[in-house]
Design a protein that fits this description.
This protein has about 675 residues and is mostly helical. The protein has 33 helices and no strands. Among the domains are: about 110 residues, Tetratricopeptide repeat domain (Serine Threonine Protein Phosphatase 5, Tetratricopeptide repeat), CATH 1.25.40.10; about 80 residues, Alpha Horseshoe (Serine Threonine Protein Phosphatase 5, Tetratricopeptide repeat). The longest helix has 23 residues.
Length: about 675
């Protein structure tokens, strides 16, 4: 009994010690006292609860959760539900935390707060919004501002990831967090300029708020502003200001922020700017996206976008196997998503396997009809790249939901025209016009008003038929247009032109509907028109022509103006007293007075034959003068051709028979490009 009393007294003293340490925030010391209490009584519920709280405050969530599970019989869900759920939440076991909260017998305010956080992490934004609204409505304490901030974050997430138009919550944007969340919601709506203004306001409020604390340095402020600057850079990137965005992204990376999620997003955005350029920088940046804990900081769509970009980077860096592996993994995670199969097709095209790429896309389109339109557009593009325009047209026409769209009609007509398949082009117009007729009839219950798009298609069809000589087929379209607007003179003129070749009588009847010349008088300021730049130019030109005509009348009365012949340019040393050289058109070597190049005396005496042969003149060594060579044309001024029989050179010393001809050919080539002169 005495021992039990002493133990109880010690436990009481230790409990007061734990209480005092807890109030002072010294949870490490409090934990030591709690352990001493548990040595006295290991199943003390209060001591166990205190130990769990101390471990949580010290950041030992795994140990705290282990303690709760070990003493599950003592620490029931009624006692420890919040602490257990919080440990699971901090250990990123979000689904387990949700089950723990939902299984609690009593939903306390603390559990409701945690429930909102858990729903946000699970991206169940509608339920999360309802939970925070209930908390704000039923709570009155110092945490109201934090709850409003969380509420605005939920609205921003809905706008960004679910494309939901956010409702006006009526929150007073007095803090930089609220301004930042409001800017994110505006980005989700595409209101980039408004979002930038909100971010600038958030930056200003953040600086004001942090500068009031004397312990906060400029580096601390810049670190806090990093997320705001990151969002500013993202807006710049969306606006096409990639250089400004890249500069701001790199500034944030240099600060080395501790938020791995922020770094991963910035690195990913830099990779998207680089694309297939600067891949070495992209390879370095991709490491930031692989940091530990990133998967718990970003949304599913953000993580998915990062994985897509990794696959694309592998393709750009010619890592084909890595690209296939990543895209296959993405496809298994999201079988209905388009990007993985498009990346695989792009990789196959880089490997020149176009047929295999088209087959892959076709299989995906068959398995996922909802996404078939976009896939078929890609298939058509591949067929065009291969030069199979007709097959591309067939693929495009198989997309039923796009057949009537003006853009699709225009593309098909252009492609068929390129292939000179006018009948198919007209058929495309006809099908689109029929679709609009049926749609209009179903909407207006039999009435026949034409929509602007419908009328535009009819007009384009009529113009196309007229252009390609199909006037008979164009008549029905033109009549339909004129019926809709009888005052349209342009359509009436086209209709008369078409009937003039088919039914001249009908054309005459229709021509009566043309307005008279009096009614067609245009309100034109003649003086202003005459004084315009173009009219002045024409008037000046006309004046010049009139002056020329007057001169002709005064002179010989020439009907046509003779073209002046250009005087040929004479050489600088031209002397009109001296008779021009009659051989000036011949190459120098063929002129009668050509004596060859001057050579040194010794060189002239040296023979060019074999050793021991007799030295002869240059004329005797010229193979072109031998009997075996074809006779050259006589040079001007020479009496007769030189005989080739005297001084015959032995065959051994002669040049090949083809040599002179080759030489003559080369001379002719040179002569061909030369200009004549004196």
């Amino acid at each position: 009994k005495m021992a039990a009393a002493a133990g109880a007294a010690a436990a009481a003293g230790l409990s007061s010690e734990v209480n005092r340490c807890g109030q002072n925030g010294d949870f490490a010391r409090a934990l030591k006292s709690v352990n001493k209490i548990l040595q006295i009584n290991k199943d003390d519920v209060t001591a166990l609860h205190c130990k769990v709280v101390c471990l949580i405050q010290n950041g030992n969530f795994k140990e705290a959760l282990g303690l709760i599970n070990t003493h599950a019989k003592v620490l029931t869900s009624d006692v420890i539900a919040f602490e257990k759920a919080y440990c699971e939440y901090r250990l990123n076991r979000i689904e387990s935390a949700l089950k723990t909260i939902q299984s609690a017998s009593q939903q306390t305010d603390k559990l409701k707060e945690l429930y909102g956080q858990v729903l946000y992490r699970l991206e169940r934004y509608d339920e999360c919004l309802a939970a925070y609204r209930d908390l704000i409505r039923n709570s009155q304490d110092e945490y109201e501002e934090e709850r409003k901030t969380n509420l605005s974050a939920v609205v921003a997430a809905q706008s960004t990831w679910e494309k939901v138009v956010p409702e006006d919550l009526g929150l007073r944007e007095a803090t930089y967090e609220l301004c930042y969340n409001s800017a994110c919601a505006l980005i989700g709506q595409g209101k980039l300029n408004e979002a930038m203004k909100k971010l600038q306001k958030a930056e200003e409020l953040c600086r004001q708020s942090l500068s009031e604390d004397s312990d906060v340095t400029e580096e601390d402020i810049e670190a806090e502003l990093a997320i705001i600057h990151g969002q500013m850079a993202y807006i710049m990137q969306l606006q096409g200001r990639t250089e400004d965005a890249l500069q701001l992204y790199n500034q944030i990376i240099k600060l080395k922020p501790t938020d791995v999620g922020l770094l991963a997003v910035i690195a990913n955005n830099i990779i998207t700017i680089n694309k297939d350029q600067n891949v070495f920088d992209s390879k370095k940046k991709v490491k930031l996206t692989n940091a530990e804990g990133v998967e718990h900081k970003l949304s599913k769509k953000q993580l998915q976008a990062i994985e897509f970009n990794k696959a694309l980077l592998a393709m750009y860096t010619n890592q084909a196997d890595q690209c296939r592996k990543l895209s296959a993994s993405l496809q298994s995670q999201s079988p209905e998503h388009l990007l993985p199969v498009l990346i695989q097709a792009a990789q196959l095209c880089r490997e020149k396997q176009h047929a295999k790429a088209v087959g892959l896309l076709q299989d995906f389109a068959d398995q996922h009809p909802a996404n078939a339109a976009e896939i078929k557009l890609t298939m058509a593009q591949l067929k065009i790249a291969q030069g199979s325009v007709t097959k591309a047209c067939m693929i495009l026409r198989s997309i039923e939901e796009l057949q009537h769209k003006p853009g699709m009609v225009s593309a098909l007509v252009t492609m068929y025209s390129h292939e000179e398949d006018i009948d198919s082009a007209i058929e495309v117009f006809t099908q689109a016009i029929q679709w609009y007729q049926q749609y209009q009839a179903s909407q207006t219950r039999g009435a026949n008003p034409k929509s602007p798009v419908h009328l535009s298609l009819i007009r384009e069809a009529a113009n196309f038929k007229l252009k390609h000589g199909r006037k008979k087929e164009a008549i029905s379209d033109l009549e339909e247009l004129w019926k809709q607007n009888p005052k349209d003179v342009h359509t009436l003129a086209q209709l008369i032109s078409a009937y003039s070749l088919v039914d001249p009588e009908k054309a005459k009847v229709l021509s009566k509907h043309l307005p008279s010349s009096d009614t067609m008088s245009l309100k034109v300021d003649v003086d202003a028109l005459e004084n315009s730049h173009g009219a002045t130019y024409v008037r000046k030109k006309a004046g010049k022509l009139t002056g020329d005509n007057q001169q002709k009348e005064q002179g010989q009365g020439e009907v046509k103006k003779k073209k002046k012949k250009k005087k040929g340019k004479l050489p600088k040393n031209y002397d009109p007293k001296v008779t021009p050289d009659p051989e000036r058109w011949l190459p120098m070597r063929e002129r009668s007075y050509y004596r060859g190049r001057k050579k040194g005396k010794k060189k002239d005496q040296v023979g060019k034959g074999t050793q021991g042969s007799t030295t002869t003149g240059s004329s005797e060594l010229d193979a072109s003068r031998t009997a075996s060579s074809p006779p050259t044309s006589p040079r001007p001024g020479s009496g007769a051709a030189v005989s080739a029989t005297s001084n015959v050179i032995p065959p051994r010393h002669q040049k090949p028979a083809g040599a002179p001809a080759t030489k003559k050919k080369q001379q002719q080539k040179k002569k061909k490009g030369a200009k004549g002169g004196w």
